[in-house]
Amino acid sequence: MISVDSSPVNPVEDSLGEFELRVLEFERRNPQTGGTKADAVRTQLGISAARYYQVLNLVIDSPAALAYDPMLIRRLLRIRESRMKARFAIRTKVSAN
Which helix (H) or strand (E) is 80 found in, with range? Predict the structure, then answer.
């Protein structure tokens, strides 16, 4: 006889690790920037702010993260893109001088 597991399975959550889900949930709840966010990262996730942003940038490139929370991921991608454009503009302005 075949046993059927009746527990719901979410393939998106299964493809993201527990820590990646915690990072996304943290970002969803704490979108503010500044020193207090760095303190919150260390307290709630137990990592440095630099490591947090490294993990976050890897996670938001994941199709599983986009499937998990499309609005959050698109917002974070827009923010990252605008910051990259601003950095590029500064670099090209400095290089032109």
Answer: helix 70-96
